[in-house]
Specification:
By secondary structure, the chain is α/β, with parallel strands linked by helices. The chain has two domains: 117 residues, Rossmann fold (3-Layer(aba) Sandwich); 179 residues, Dihydrodipicolinate Reductase, domain 2. It has twelve helices and 16 strands. The strands form three sheets. Strands 3-2-1-4-5-6-15 form a seven-stranded parallel β-sheet, sandwiched between helices. The protein has a seven-stranded mixed β-sheet with strand order 10-11-12-7-13-14-16. Helix 2 links the parallel strand 2 and strand 3. The longest helix has 17 residues. The radius of gyration is 19 Å and the shape is globular.
C-alpha cells in the first residue's frame, strides 16, 4: 500500500453517491482530508454530517474550474460518466490537476482518449479506475506478464461472477444513459458485440472456484476491454458476466444494496478471473472478495496515492499501464489474489 501524501488536496466529485462514500472512507483512513464536491448543496451537507472536519464545494461540471482551485487530484464518482468525464477531466487538465474516475462504461474511456490524443499535458488522466475497468485490466496484465513486451497475444478474456447484483440508483441511471454500442476486440480491432440472441452471442459455461462453480456467462462490453486494448497487444479481448447477475441488474424490481457490516458493505460475493493465451499456453490471474462497489475504493485510492507520489506518466493511462500490475494487485485488500502462469482450462474463442 502506497503512502498517501498528507499535503496533497484530493477532491471527490459526486461525494454523495453510494460508491463515493467508500472512496471518502478509504481516503480518510489513509490520512487524506478530501474536499467533498457535487451539484447539490443539501446532499453535500448530509454527507458532511458524517465527516464534519471536511470542507465542501458546490458546482456542476460546467463550472468545474471553480471546484479545482488549490486541488492536486480529483476523483470523479458522479455518473453517468458519459456526461461528466470529459468536461471534468478537461477542466482538470487545464488546471494541471490529475483526474481519475470510476466509469464502468466503455464510451467515456474512448472519449477521454480521443479528447487528449493531441497532448502533451502535465496531468495524469485515469478513467475506469474501479472494479469494472481497472481490475480486469490489472488481472489481464498480471496474467500476461512478459508477453506484454512480445508479439501479439492471441486472446485475453475477463470472467466475472457475482452471487447477486443489487444495483445502486447510479448504476441504473448509467444503464439508461449507456445506450451506444458495446465493443470487444477481434482481429486486433474494436468491433461491436453481437446481440445476445445471435449465434455469436450465445452464452457458454465457465467454472469458477467456490462458491460459484460452473456458471452460464454472457458477453458484456465493459471498460476493461478498452483499457486492456490500449496497452496489451492482443488479437482478441472480451469480458463476460454470469447471466444470473446480469438478469438481476436488468430487473427493475431488484432492490438496491443493503449494508451488512460496519464498513457499509453488502453481502455480495464476487470472483474475477483473467485468462491470457499465447502459443497454446494459458496464464490466469484471479481475485475474490466482497461488494463490487466497496472494492472500487481501494483501487482508485491506491492509484491516486501512486499518482501523487509521481509514479504515473502524464496522459490517458490505466493503473495497469502506469504501475506494475502484480505489485498493485498485491497491495489491495482482496480476500484472495492468485496468479498462475499455466492453466488447464480452455479459454473460449471470441
Amino acid at each position: 500500500m502506497s503512502i498517501f501524501p498528507e499535503s496533497a488536496t484530493v477532491l471527490v466529485y459526486g461525494a454523495y453517491g453510494h460508491t463515493a462514500r467508500f472512496v471518502i472512507d478509504e481516503l480518510v483512513r489513509r490520512g487524506s482530508r478530501p474536499v467533498l464536491a457535487g451539484r447539490s448543496p443539501e446532499r453535500l451537507q448530509s454527507v458532511r454530517g458524517d465527516y464534519p472536519d471536511l470542507s465542501i464545494r458546490t458546482a456542476g461540471v460546467a463550472d468545474a474550474q471553480d471546484l479545482l482551485a488549490a486541488v492536486d487530484l480529483v476523483i470523479n464518482c458522479a455518473g453517468p460518466f458519459a456526461d461528466t468525464a470529459v468536461p471534468l477531466a478537461a477542466a482538470a487538465v487545464r488546471a494541471g490537476v490529475h483526474y481519475l474516475d470510476l466509469s464502468a462504461e466503455q464510451q467515456p474511456v474512448l472519449d477521454l482518449a480521443a479528447e487528449f490524443q493531441d497532448g502533451p499535458f502535465a496531468s495524469t488522466v485515469m478513467p475506469a479506475a474501479g472494479f469494472f475497468g481497472a481490475l480486469g485490466d490489472l488481472l489481464a496484465t498480471a496474467a500476461a506478464g512478459d508477453w506484454a513486451e512480445m508479439d501479439q497475444i492471441e486472446e485475453i478474456s475477463v470472467f466475472t461472477a457475482l452471487d447477486h447484483w443489487h444495483p445502486t440508483s447510479g448504476t441504473r441511471r448509467t444503464g439508461e444513459r449507456n445506450t451506444g454500442p458495446r465493443f470487444k476486440v477481434a482481429g486486433g480491432k474494436l468491433v461491436p458485440i453481437a446481440p445476445a440472441h445471435s449465434q455469436a452471442g450465445r452464452p457458454f459455461s465457465w467454472t469458477f472456484p467456490a462458491p460459484f462453480g460452473t456458471c452460464e456467462l454472457g458477453e458484456l462490453g465493459l471498460a476493461e476491454t478498452i483499457c486492456i486494448s490500449r496497452h496489451l497487444p492482443a488479437t482478441r479481448i472480451s469480458s463476460y458476466l454470469n447471466l444470473s447477475a446480469l438478469s438481476e441488474l436488468r430487473d427493475p424490481h431488484t432492490p438496491p444494496p443493503i449494508a451488512t457490516d460496519t464498513a457499509g458493505r453488502s453481502a455480495q460475493r464476487f470472483t474475477m478471473e483473467a485468462v491470457a493465451v499465447r502459443d497454446g499456453v494459458r496464464r490466469t490471474a484471479r481475485v475474490q472478495g466482497q461488494d463490487i462497489y466497496a472494492s472500487s475504493a481501494p483501487i482508485v485510492v491506491e492509484a491516486a496515492a501512486r499518482i501523487l507520489a509521481g509514479e504515473a506518466p502524464s496522459g490517458v493511462v490505466s493503473p495497469a499501464s502506469a504501475f506494475p500490475a502484480e505489485e498493485f494487485l498485491a497491495a489491495l485488500p482482496f480476500e484472495e489474489f492468485s496468479l498462475n502462469t499455466k492453466s488447464d482450462q480452455h479459454s473460449p474463442s471470441v
